[in-house]
Design goal:
Blueprint lengths: L1 E11 L2 E11 L4 E5 L6 H8 L5 E8 L6 E4 L11 H11 L4 H14 L15 H13 L5 E5 L7 H16 L3 E5 L3 H7 L2 E6 L2 E6 L1 H8 L6 H15 L1
Helix pairs in contact: 2-4, 7-8
């Protein structure tokens, strides 16, 4: 669906934050981008979306697949619009018809227990409710690819489970998901493959079994592999 080849990106030429990243994502696949703070995870996501001032390398979409929805780490919203108006705007941008919009909007509101808040202003919401709102605005667009940056911040366990159920529903329908997260136990349970980034470079890629082989312990969990590989890379740098 999407292929990234030798991507480097930064805020000015000659000072790249990420360097020579290459990976691809297929339909129905959930890929987790993991790494320490400051490793370049969010920069990778912004570079894919064309939001970095300097981006080098190649980004190519498969035929018929070129629409994505973005869930940022920090919720972004319009202060003078209600939740319902945000959902309507997101659907209009994706050219979703009114009947389909209303049906899906009501379903998402019910899923995240936000029906009674649909005509309230998002700026009045708690952090968790704002995060739910941004999630709903992304999923109502029904894109080919979901790009998600640290989605679990502010979500309680029930909302986290609802989000993962929704992700799996969309994957079954053929959408792909690229997700950056520090919540390694959730990533280990749900992701098909991982891209482990440290100091702006991919130090490991593949399934959990691939990561385990690279780490050298076939029974290790993702948390152990993450700590071992990132510490080893830091020691060698």
């Amino acid at each position: 669906m999407l292929t990234i080849h030798k991507m480097s990106a930064g805020y000015q030429s000659g000072k790249m934050i990420i360097n020579d990243l290459s990976f691809s994502i297929k339909k129905g696949e959930l890929i987790g981008i993991i790494g320490p703070n400051g490793a370049g995870k969010s920069t990778t996501i912004k570079a894919i979306m064309g939001l970095m001032p300097v981006v080098q390398g190649e980004t190519s979409w498969a035929d018929g697949c070129n629409r994505y929805a973005y869930i940022p780490e920090t919720p972004i919203f319009y202060e003078n619009l209600t939740l319902w108006e945000h959902l309507r705007f997101a659907a209009a941008v994706s050219e979703i018809g009114e009947e389909s919009f209303e049906k899906e909007a009501e379903r998402l509101l019910g899923l995240f227990n936000m029906t009674e808040k649909k005509h309230d202003y998002i700026e009045q919401f708690s952090k968790g409710m704002q995060q739910k709102s941004v999630i709903m605005c992304a999923f109502i667009q029904n894109p080919d690819l979901y790009i998600i940056d640290e989605p679990f911040i502010g979500l309680d366990p029930h909302a986290t489970k609802k989000l993962m159920d929704l992700i799996n529903e969309k994957r079954t329908a053929g959408a792909a998901v690229l997700m950056s997260t520090h919540v390694l136990d959730t990533a280990e349970k749900w992701c098909d493959r991982f891209i482990m980034i440290n100091a702006g470079r991919a130090i490991a890629q593949g399934t959990l079994a691939d990561i385990r082989r690279l780490y050298g312990y076939p029974e290790a969990g993702l948390f152990e592999c993450f700590n071992g590989l990132t510490e080893e890379y830091s020691d060698e740098s």
